[in-house]
Structure prediction request, 167 residues.
Amino acid sequence: MNNNFYEIPNDWYNEFNNNFMNSMDNGMPNMNNFNIPDMFNMNNNMPNMSNDLADPKVALDRGNLFNSLYDPYKNYKYRPLKASNKREELLIDILKHNFALTELNLYLDVNPRNMNMINLYNRYLTNKKRLVDEYEKQFGPLTLEGLNVGNNSWNWDNSPWPWEGTK
Prediction:
């Protein structure tokens, strides 16, 4: 059998049938017979990436939480975000925590058993929730979850939207 579209050689089919199909146990392949790399780091020999992390503010400014993975473009110098008032300061703090949570989320997708990173993720999540609560008490809701409709008022328009800036 030859698949002309992909031009897969006949000896590949023979190797597949001899190695894979003959190793079936109860209709399922016996994966112990294959040399499959541990691409998800499910073992306990994971590198300790927690020593490689940048401060969340620096990570947000440059777009990467991991120092060893940051590769600046040519001679590009990133410009840090600067707040001009308390409202913008809180928004930047929330943004930097959101960025760090997203980066850690991606890392934990590949390294789901790294307890140091899970604990760090939970700490950033707690800090972010605290910052969002503080922002919403002072400046109004950021999300629908922060909207208090107990007083029968839809109060999105009581404060400027984040992109409107300050007046």
Notes: Helices lie at 10-19, 56-62, 86-110, 115-139. Residues 86-110 form the longest helix (25 residues). Confidence is low (pLDDT under 50) at residues 34-46. The chain has two domains: 1-36, 49-143+155-164.
